[in-house]
Every structure is written in structure tokens, then in C-alpha cells.
Amino acid sequence: MKFRTYITAVLFSIALFTQALGQVTESPRVEERSVQDVSIKKVELTDQYTIIYLQYIDRQREAPGLPFPGMKSQGASIWLDPETRLYKPGEINTKFKLIKAENIPTKSDRMPVKGGQVVDFVAYFERLTPGIEVFDFYEGRATNPGERTWNFYGVHIKNPKNRISEKPAKLPEKPKPVTPEKAEPLEKPREPELIENPEELDEKRMLSEPSFGQLQGTVYDAVTNEPLTASIQYVENGDSLTIYSSSGSFRVGVDLSKTYSFQVAAKGYFGESLELNPKDSSGHQLFNKNIYLRPIQVGASMAMGNIYFETGKYGLLPESFPELQRLLNLMKDNPGLGIRIEGHTDNVGDFDKNLELSKQRAEAVKGYLVSKGVKPERIEARGYGSTRPIAKDQSEAERSRNRRVEVVITQE
Q: What is the pLDDT of residue 202?
């Protein structure tokens, strides 16, 4: 009996000791990351911190902007943004601050690194609420041209909801005998604090950060509804940023005071544009948007919703250039592709003039592509005037839908 009691005590002590050290997840599974240079090697949870061990490898890659094509970067400088946060996926207000970092600067200084150099560093965050076993590591948005942020989405760790209390409850001291007239009520021993409702703690962590929001979603095949490997490109503070997603899922931090235009692309599919104006979001910080891309095949068509002309004319307006660039990229990425550009108008005005105007607008789009190097024999231009409406043409909103440019695949 004594031996069994001894074994039980030893096992209990080991459990407490292990818990005091915290949960450790080696090489956690990460669903997506924004760059390949940085990886998470380990996540350790202690009573006070969420400790993330990271490794940066300066890969000698082709560097845009260097004077000769194919030149490799000879190094860079790195730092960790002090505003880096951990988030519970889908809950923008459940966030955990960066406390400190080791072996990497977190202020205005930069750490220079040479091509091929490996840097191991550690980031300490507020303790994740027990029960959160998937989190996002979000460094933020690049503020200067050439900067790249380190973002990890869907980091899976061990962090069970019901944790053993690190400190066993202290037993109350045995009260000393006292006479009845001097007796005082004994204070009830305090129970150890166990986190039974993580949501209550999440509420305490909710911080007001009105300038920050997040766009998230998944890119799908519009025919099969299967997720696609895709890229999401956008411009922020003059810097062109691209997120690559092998699973189709994406998360992008946005400034709620700015307007964004996202270009979504996948090999073998028509691209799509997504406009986001957070300031019209009525205070929401989290935006959910799934994208459905159609496969490129003969006969498939794509409406070019953001090509604009002057009223009654065929001159392209500057607002059209992002959409035209998307079409140009499609032609360059698929050198065997042949297309037909179709111009359409509403039914207001003279029928013959509308027919001619629609042909001129289709020719204007073709002319843009040819001026950028696309062979003219790959492009056919036609005008249909008001003969193929997609709405009834009875209201301004309906007539606006009918004034459009479409692209039809004629050859793969």
C-alpha cells in the first residue's frame, strides 16, 4: 500500500512539473505563410507567455529592381514589427500582444543579414487562452517599398482547454482554539482558479483598434467548388504585395481608412477583381469573401466589369488600366490563347450608333493589348450594340449592367 501511494505521488509530481514547463509543439503545422524565408520551429506555452521560436534563412533569390535580370540578392535587413499580434482565426478582436523578442530588433533598428545566412530568433507574446489550438501570427502590412511581412495563418499547437492548475490549492491552517466569546468566522479557503470559460477572458483582451481590419476567404473553382491554388495581389502604400495560397484560403490585413483593389489569379482560370472599401463597413473589422474562378476553355466568357469609357465615346479611362492589366497577364500567361472581345451598350439612343460605338470600344481594348505586345491575330473585336442585353434596360441600374465589355475564349 505504501509503495502504491509513493508511485501515485511521483506521477502527480511529474504531471505538475510537466505542466509548469508548459505545452510544447515542435514544428507546428502551418496552413499558409506569406513568405518562404521564415519558418516556425517550435511553440511553447508557459504560465506567462506564448513563446514562438522562428528561423530566418536569407535565400539568394532574384531581386526585383536590380540592374541586370537574374541578379541575386546579396543580403537584406530584418526586424520584427512591435505591433505583431497573434489572433484567433475569424475573431479579429481576440488578439495577443508581442511582449519582447530575442536575437532580432523590434524598433527602428534593422539587423543586416548576408545571402544564405540563417538567423534563429524568439518572440514572446501574451499567453494564448487555453482552448485556442489554432492561431494566426500577423506581423502587419509593409509600409515601405520592398518590405515583406511575416504572416502565418492556421498555426496548429497543443493548448487544451482544461488545464491543471500550476499551483495546488493552499490548505487552510488549522484554527487555534478560542473561547466562544472571541470566536470569529473562519475565512473560506480560496479555490484554485481554473479557466472554465475562455470566452470571458477573450472579452477582457478585446482592444479597440479601429484602424485595422482583415479580409479573409477561399478561392474556389466555380464549376467543381474545389479550392484552388491561387495568388492575391494588391497595392498598399505604393508597394505591390502578393499572397500565395496553396490551399486557396487567404487572410489579408487592411487599413480601414483606405480602399483596396485585389486581383485574384490561378493558373488555367479567369482572374477576378475584388474591390474593398472598409470605411463603408459600418464599423466591421472582419470581411469574409469567397472567390469563384471559372476555368479557361473554348466558349467560356468573362465580363470585364472595371473597364470604363467616356460617356458616348470609346476612349479608355485611366480607371480601366488595372482590369486591362489583368487581361494582359492572362494573354501573356497563356501564349496559345485566342480571344474575342465583345462590346455591348444599352438601348438608349440610335441603334446603329450604339452598334458602331460598341465595336469601337471592343477595338480600343484590342488596341491596348496589341500596344503591350500581344499579337493582333490572337484577338478578334466585335460590337453587338444593344442586341444582347443581360438586364431589362428599364432602369439606370439595368442599363448600366448592359453597358459592358466581355471576353470570350476562341482558342486554348
A: 39
How many angstroms separate the CA atoms of 40 and 53, rounded? 6
Range in 37-46, 214-223, 244-253, 335-344 the model is least confident about: 244-253
Q: What is the pLDDT of residue 246?
A: 84
Spatial separation of the C-alpha atoms in residues 24 and 50, rounded to whole Å: 10
Q: For the chain, how many helices (H) and strands (E)?
A: 5, 23
Grid cell of 148 as nine digits: 515583406
What domains, with CATH codes, occur in the chain? Answer: 2-162+201-205 (2.60.40), 208-295 (2.60.40.2190), 302-412 (3.30.1330.60)
Residue 366 has pLDDT above 90, yes or no: yes
Question: In angstroms, rounded to a whole number, what is the distance separating the alpha carbons of residues 63 and 150?
Answer: 18
Question: 251, 227, 197: which is closest to 87 by C-alpha?
Answer: 251
pLDDT confidence of residue 263: 86
Percent helix / strand / coil, the chain, rounded to 5:
20, 35, 45
According to DSSP, the β-strands at 38-45 and 111-114 are unpaired
